[in-house]
Amino acid sequence: MSTVDHYGSLHRAATGEGIPADEVARFAELLRFAVWANEKYEGEIVAHPRGLPPGQSDDLLVGRAGGLPDLPVGMPWPADEEGVPLPFVASFDCAALPRVEGLPLPPDGSLLIFLHHEEAYDADDRDEEQQFARVIHVPAGTGTVAAPPEDYPSRPFCTDLGFIGPERDLFAVVHAELPEWVGRDEAKLSPFQQRLARDLPHRRELCAVVDRLWPAGNSATFQFGGYSWHTGGVSRGHLYDEPELAIAEKNVRGGDVEEELQRVRREWIPLVQFEPNDDVYYGRFLIRVEDLAAGRFDRAVSWTEFTE
Fold this sequence. Notes:
Elements: H1 6-16, H2 21-28, E1 32-38, E2 61-65, E3 71-72, E4 88-93, E5 110-115, H3 117-122, H4 126-129, E6 133-138, E7 144-145, E8 168-177, H5 191-198, H6 203-213, E9 222-225, E10 234-235, E11 238-239, H7 243-251, H8 257-267, E12 268-274, E13 281-288, H9 289-293, E14 301-302, E15 305-306
Antiparallel strand pairs: 1-8, 1-9, 2-4, 2-8, 3-7, 4-5, 5-6, 9-12, 10-11, 10-15, 12-13, 13-14, 13-15
């Protein structure tokens, strides 16, 4: 799929309203584009009540949640260190996913997502959690087969969810996202945010341009790129915060956490985050931009949260 010049659209619309080009460029550094994927209910994607951005359709089929994954022939079903198969979450057609700047997804093939959320959450630390989560890229042209693990009926998953969920088609649109502080009054900002805000005297007008070009939706079942969700869920070791902030706080040694957060957000992005229909948990895989561009999906980091 061809790439749309989203930042060019912002520049043309904002400068057309008289906002200086250098300020638009600074504002654009805060703007991220994300691919939202949802299923349809009665023919409509309910996550987009205010309509779609100009030129977008909600008929773009990009993946499937549930069912069986198309694994490469000869590849064993992904499992934890004890050999217990990991539940399959969803698959996505990389060639069908919209191209957005700052999100260097593979141009073709498919992405398969596996996560045992209960075991991931109960792991003793973030490193141990990774054995219960996996993102696999299957290159285009690879021979595949869709079959469950041989002994999956004897493998309990959890009390309420089946190991293999019902199949649901997923349709995608592009959304624009800004950090939450951009819309706040300056008095409510941190010193670092205030410094950024002073260089954006037209930030409210710029936010209005973004809202007009990419009308806000309610939520996504799956999201590639953008900013990490503030879920209100509980993540082991760090409560009620986005993962990038946890990384920034760990990195900072007497420095400005907000400034470090800006750096971390340039280095790391949410590869995919999701809230399946059971409303039990949030899954999320973070990845360094350079690792995503190089196709090093084994370096994606799972960050599981529970909603209650």
